[in-house]
Every structure is written in structure tokens, then in C-alpha cells.
């Protein structure tokens, strides 16, 4: 492919300084169809990705093959460790996995038993996603993972049950009960993700200058990154969990819906799936993946880390440091 212009395969194909560019990038790697690509094909894509990166791709390799290899590699392999990710924790599985869990939570919300069970299912799925997309340079112990999982489960279930009983006693509009799952999921995200990534805060994240050279660590950086990830996750599920109750409240009395009562879960799951297909890349694109932090913030809150950065930059630190915020 000597006649074709080469690309930097390690960089996104679209401008990450714009929302549209980030949306196109995440739509590219979170396509639900990528979930069904065989493992053998994923490893073949990784091999071509690595060979192209080293300038050693086989003769006759086309740009289309390179772009496809890039898509498969970035959708399935961890960006830090390079390990093949669990299929259920990949961003490409967010739509199928999320629509099943969300559809069930919105369908079966009337009994306390159903609320507890489906919150457990959803938080188990979320814990897997958070672990799969963790920063591999700050590994968690088994105890830390267990505490994060149990804490998120407790937050989700206690929030859901509290709101459910309060609404049942005081609310006059029955549609309010349908919003309980969203409140519980939002509360649990603020517990689950920070705890699953706690070592990033405790140990600090590597930060780089604009050229990508590691110049030190920061404990404030992961706080900013995790906050953005939590916000994105809540935005990701918000349209489906907030608009679907209104939609179902309107269409459930319809004669055709009354004839397929057992099929309501399928209707809700399909609608949630449509929302998530669009919202997964939208939410991921809200903030740049390569997050930046002012050096003045580190100077103010992290004296030791600031001194280390000063040392590593010969007393001339950059105005901003950069780090990967995670997903």
C-alpha cells in the first residue's frame, strides 16, 4: 500500500477536539455488531494493527483492511494492557446488555422483590463494565473489588426501595414509580465507578505533556476523569429511563397493547435499544478521551506531585498535563 497515504493507526480517525469527531469515533468502536465478531478474527485484526504500526504490514494490504483492523482492535482490546476484554464489558456490548437490563427494570418495578432483583442484575453488569474499562496501571485487589460491588449494590437497592415506598405513600401520579430505576442507577453510578477505580485516586495517574511524554503523577486527575465518566454513564441511560416511562404510560392503555401484555417487555427492550444505539456514542463523546488538567491545580492541591513534575521538566512545567479519563 505504498501508493496510499499512511495513517497514524494509534490515533482516532476523526478530530477529537470536536463533539462530532468524538461521536463518530465512539460510534465506530461501540457498534453493537462488533460484539459478534469471532475471537479468531479479533486476534487477526490485532496482528495486522501491530504490523501496520511497525510499518511491517503484508504487501497488498489495503487501507480498508487497516481501518477495519483498527476498529476491531480498539473495540475489543484494553488500551493500557492490550489484553482482550471480556465481551460483556466492552462498549460494543453496552447497547444489547443495557437494553436488556434497563427494559427489565422499567417493566418489573411494582414489587420490592422485582426492584431488588433487577437492580442486582444491572449493578452486576455495571461492575463488569467498570472493571473491564478500568485503568490497568492501577489494579484493584479482590477485597477492593468486592467492597466496590457490594457498596454499589447497597446504594442502588436502598435508593430504589426508599424512593419506591415514599412514592407509593405520597405520590398521586402512578407514573412517578416508573422513574425509581433511574434514580437508583444514577445514585449507584456515583458509588460504583469511584470505588471500582479507587486506586487511581489513591496511587495517582500518570500525566503527560502535550507530546505524550510522562512527566509525573496526579491524584486530582482521576477525580476529574471519574466525575466525567459518571456523568457520561448517567447521560447514557437517561433518555431511555426518563422518556420510556412516559411513552409506556401513553401506549399501555391502547387496545393493541392490551392484547400483548406479555410482550410489553419486548416493546420496552426494543425502544431502550434504539435509545442506547444513539446514546452510547453520544455520552462517550461528551468529554474528550484525552483529558487535560491545569498545572496550577496540581500546584495548589498536590505539592509533592507538582515538585516531581518540576523536577522532570527541568523547572519548566507545561500549562496543562494530559491523561486518559477512561470509559
TrEMBL record:
<keyword id="KW-0472">Membrane</keyword>
<keyword id="KW-0029">Amino-acid transport</keyword>
<dbReference type="InterPro" id="IPR004686">
    <property type="entry name" value="Mtc"/>
</dbReference>
<dbReference type="GO" id="GO:0005743">
    <property type="term" value="C:mitochondrial inner membrane"/>
</dbReference>
<keyword id="KW-0812">Transmembrane</keyword>
<dbReference type="GO" id="GO:0015075">
    <property type="term" value="F:monoatomic ion transmembrane transporter activity"/>
</dbReference>
<keyword id="KW-1133">Transmembrane helix</keyword>
<feature type="transmembrane region" description="Helical">
    <location>
        <begin position="99"/>
        <end position="121"/>
    </location>
</feature>
<feature type="transmembrane region" description="Helical">
    <location>
        <begin position="141"/>
        <end position="163"/>
    </location>
</feature>
<feature type="transmembrane region" description="Helical">
    <location>
        <begin position="265"/>
        <end position="288"/>
    </location>
</feature>
<keyword id="KW-0496">Mitochondrion</keyword>
<feature type="transmembrane region" description="Helical">
    <location>
        <begin position="175"/>
        <end position="193"/>
    </location>
</feature>
<comment type="similarity">
    <text>Belongs to the sideroflexin family.</text>
</comment>
<dbReference type="GO" id="GO:0140300">
    <property type="term" value="P:serine import into mitochondrion"/>
</dbReference>
<keyword id="KW-0813">Transport</keyword>
<dbReference type="Pfam" id="PF03820">
    <property type="entry name" value="SFXNs"/>
</dbReference>
<protein>
    <recommendedName>
        <fullName>Sidoreflexin</fullName>
    </recommendedName>
</protein>
Amino acid at each position: 500500500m505504498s501508493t496510499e497515504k499512511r495513517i497514524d493507526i494509534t490515533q482516532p480517525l476523526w478530530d477529537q477536539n470536536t463533539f462530532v469527531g468524538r461521536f463518530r469515533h465512539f460510534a465506530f468502536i461501540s457498534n453493537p455488531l462488533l460484539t459478534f465478531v469471532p475471537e479468531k478474527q479479533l486476534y487477526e485484526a490485532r496482528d495486522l494493527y501491530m504490523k501496520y504500526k511497525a510499518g511491517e504490514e503484508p504487501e497488498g494490504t489495503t487501507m480498508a483492511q487497516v481501518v477495519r483492523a483498527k476498529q476491531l482492535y480498539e473495540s475489543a482490546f484494553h488500551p493500557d494492557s492490550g489484553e482482550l476484554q471480556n465481551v460483556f464489558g466492552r462498549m460494543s456490548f453496552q447497547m444489547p446488555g443495557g437494553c436488556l437490563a434497563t427494559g427489565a427494570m422499567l417493566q418489573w418495578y411494582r414489587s420490592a422483590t422485582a426492584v431488588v432483583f433487577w437492580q442486582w442484575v444491572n449493578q452486576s453488569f455495571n461492575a463488569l463494565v467498570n472493571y473491564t474499562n478500568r485503568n490497568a496501571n492501577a489494579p484493584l485487589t479482590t477485597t477492593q473489588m468486592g467492597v466496590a460491588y457490594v457498596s454499589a449494590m447497597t446504594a442502588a437497592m436502598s435508593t430504589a426501595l426508599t424512593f419506591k415506598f415514599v412514592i407509593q405513600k405520597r405520590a398521586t401520579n402512578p407514573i412517578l414509580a416508573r422513574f425509581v430505576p433511574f434514580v437508583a442507577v444514577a445514585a449507584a453510578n456515583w458509588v460504583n465507578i469511584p470505588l471500582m477505580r479507587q486506586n487511581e485516586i489513591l496511587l495517582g495517574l500518570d500525566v503527560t505533556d502535550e507530546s505524550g511524554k510522562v512527566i509525573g503523577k496526579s491524584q486530582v486527575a482521576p477525580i476529574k476523569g471519574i466525575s466525567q465518566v459518571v456523568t457520561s454513564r448517567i447521560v447514557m441511560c437517561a433518555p431511555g429511563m426518563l422518556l420510556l416511562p412516559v411513552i409506556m404510560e401513553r401506549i399501555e392503555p391502547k387496545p393493541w397493547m392490551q392484547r400483548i401484555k406479555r410482550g410489553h417487555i419486548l416493546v420496552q427492550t426494543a425502544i431502550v435499544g434504539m435509545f442506547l444505539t444513539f446514546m452510547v456514542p453520544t455520552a462517550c463523546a461528551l468529554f474528550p478521551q484525552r483529558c487535560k488538567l491545569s498545572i496550577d491545580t496540581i500546584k495548589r492541591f498536590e505539592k509533592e506531585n507538582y515538585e516531581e513534575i518540576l523536577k522532570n521538566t527541568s523547572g519548566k512545567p507545561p500549562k496543562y498535563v494530559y491523561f486518559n479519563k477512561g470509559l
